[in-house]
Specification:
590 residues, 13 strands, single chain, 4-stranded parallel β-sheet, binds arginine, alpha/beta
């Protein structure tokens, strides 16, 4: 379905043309003075120079051609040359009625879906998930769902950090604590034990201990490096132990991500491409791209137009070890080989910007990826505490994701429990659902690249620009529709017919709904979940104004009452779709 703004712009373009002006001037936008009009067109201002005419004259000519428009109820030419526009109620009604009949509310889906690989989450094995990984998971999940709703084929890949020094550190620490394990015996040729030699909480303690020791003790560090190397070279025992680390760690991650309603299609890690590295490196050398510099193997990626210096991309360190860059490059090559993606999108902390710039340039330069493939990095800002510093626990440590989720759930539990109609079991379920909305909306409502303040009190509030407020609005709509269905039957809800708006508040709500397609399209092309948040916040505000000024269920005129039910159904459909793509859902009551 053609977007609402495009339809009204087309009407305006025709009027410019009929008056002898360029149709391109007829672009309509939402009014920036809602007190004066609903929409506006500034084309006459833009055309003044070209036609050597006062803008007000052009505007007047154009307005004259719209006197009996089926779309505008009023077109006013005002000084110095603006066109102030009001939409005909009947046009809005017919547009929304059509939206209600179409799949995806008339959103235009691509003829040929793009194939997209989305790299997000990016947790590191053996290290607990921390709040820094929260943003990647939350934003990535939303981006994935938005792109899918838009009609694209998306593969989500977690890209585990499972191959670096942290693995060598954990292995070293385990070897100190349990030296008799068969993993460390080169002569062992039996079957390695089924059970892992540690639990996940032990693992979470092992890594920080090892990391601390390696900083204080040079020999320990050297041993960890050597173990990393042996692991990567394929040492049988270390690989078997490594598998156990992955097994225990991944099982825990899956639980955490399930709590966040986040899931992945692929569980590739840095290790997945290990065997592809030597071939890739040979090709880079043979192609004349990679050369030796101070013992390391590098590829130059600086470009003349760079405003700041982009250092060469290091492919192998002087000891021959692969780096984070190397695994990312080999992963691009593998993804290209298997999936031929049109786009690969990475969601990480924005401090990794230089890394991705180097990786993308190297990948293009060395032909690891098709020319047409778009490589995009979406860098997000830091989640800060109320003091404006990176979010920490009360004693200054790194906040674990599971603790953060537990805190926000506890806060929500207290709020939901104050509703006497809700029993304990439902309250528990609802508290979790609303807590997730609070957490995700609190993050997603900010433009991703910006830092934001994690404020539990604000995020869990039922008022203001928050997830719970949006859910509260949805619950309110559901409850009215349920009451109507109880009176008239469920089928009656579907049969309700929308008529013209009866009030300004109702018309404002209708205009919001008409803007859904354009908003969703922008959220996808600009990778901007925050635009969906802004949209549903406005929609919820306008719905609540309408609700407070309209007695819906006690209305005596059946045509009006039914129309409002139809309007509520549409609003519910659109709000539910929006929160679903953001990655959360609404309860029946709260
Ligand atoms: N594991 C990395 C980290 O914790 C993030 C991985 C992001 N994805 C990628 N392909 N580099 O910082």
């Amino acid at each position: 379905m053609e977007k609402f703004l495009n339809q009204i712009s087309e009407e305006m373009a025709k009027a410019f043309e009929a008056a002898g002006y360029d149709r391109e001037l007829g672009k309509v936008t939402v009014s920036n003075r809602p007190d004066l009009c609903e929409y506006q067109c500034n084309g006459a201002m833009a055309g003044a120079k070209r036609y050597h005419k006062a803008p007000i004259m052009i505007a007047t000519d154009v307005a004259a051609n719209l006197a009996d428009s089926a779309i505008f109820s009023s077109v006013e030419a005002v000084k110095p040359g603006f066109l102030n526009l009001t939409i005909k109620e009947a046009f809005l009604t017919s547009y929304l009625t059509q939206m209600g009949k179409e799949e995806k509310f008339g959103l235009q889906v691509p003829e040929k879906p793009a194939s997209i690989i989305l790299d997000y989450g990016g947790p590191n094995v053996a290290k607990p998930l921390h709040v820094g990984h929260l943003r990647s998971a939350v934003i990535g999940e939303a981006v994935k769902r938005i792109a899918r709703y838009h009609g694209e084929n998306v593969i989500g890949d977690i890209h585990l950090g499972d191959w670096g020094l942290q693995m060598g550190l954990v292995i070293t620490e385990v070897s100190k604590r349990q030296p008799d394990l068969p993993y460390f015996d080169p002569a062992f040729d039996g079957a390695y034990p089924e059970a892992a030699p540690f639990t996940v909480s032990e693992l979470e303690e092992i890594y920080p201990t090892a990391s601390k020791r390696s900083k204080e003790d040079a020999d320990y560090y050297a041993e960890a490096m050597a173990n990393t190397h042996r692991l990567q070279e394929g040492d049988k025992g270390l690989r078997a132990l490594w598998n156990k680390i992955i097994e225990v760690s991944v099982a825990d991650m899956k639980k955490n991500y399930a709590n966040l309603d986040v899931d992945f299609d692929l569980w590739w890690g840095e290790s997945t491409v290990h065997d592809a590295i030597p071939g890739m490196v040979e090709d880079m050398k043979a192609g004349g791209f990679a050369y030796e510099s101070n013992g390391a193997l590098v590829v130059d990626v600086a470009e003349e137009t760079d405003s700041k210096e982009i250092p060469p991309c290091i492919i192998l360190k002087s000891d021959g070890a692969a780096l984070y860059t190397t695994t990312d490059l080999a992963t691009i090559k593998e993804r290209t080989r298997l999936y031929h993606p049109d786009q690969i999108i990475y969601i990480t902390d924005k401090r990794q910007e230089l890394h991705f710039q180097q990786v993308f340039r190297t990948a293009k330069k060395c032909g690891l990826v098709a020319d047409g493939t778009q490589l995009r990095h979406i860098g997000f800002g830091t989640m800060n505490g109320k003091d404006g510093k990176p979010f920490k626990t009360r004693d200054g440590g790194v906040m674990k994701l599971s603790t953060l989720i537990a805190d926000i759930q506890a806060e929500m539990r207290t709020k939901i429990a104050s509703n006497p109609e809700i029993g304990p079991e439902e309250a528990e379920k609802t508290a979790k659902q609303v807590a997730l909305a609070a957490l995700k909306y609190g993050d997603l409502s900010n433009q991703a690249s910006k830092d934001y303040i994690f404020d539990i009190d604000r995020f869990t509030s039922f008022e203001g620009d928050t997830g719970p407020y949006i859910l509260y609005t949805i619950v309110r709509i559901k409850s009215i529709l349920a009451k109507y269905a109880a009176q008239e039957g469920a089928k009656a809800v579907k049969d309700c017919v929308l008529i013209e708006a009866q009030s300004k508040a109702e018309k404002a709500l209708m205009s919001d709904l008409a803007g859904f397609n354009a908003m969703m399209d922008t959220a996808y092309t600009e990778i901007a979940p925050h635009k969906i948040c802004a949209y549903i916040y406005q929609l919820s505000n306008d719905f609540n104004s309408f609700y407070h000024s309209t007695k819906i269920l006690s209305e005596e005129d059946p045509a009006k009452k039914e129309s409002w039910i139809a309007l509520l159904s549409l609003a519910l459909g659109i709000l539910s779709t929006c929160i679903d793509v953001l990655g959360f859902s609404a309860p029946e009551r709260m």
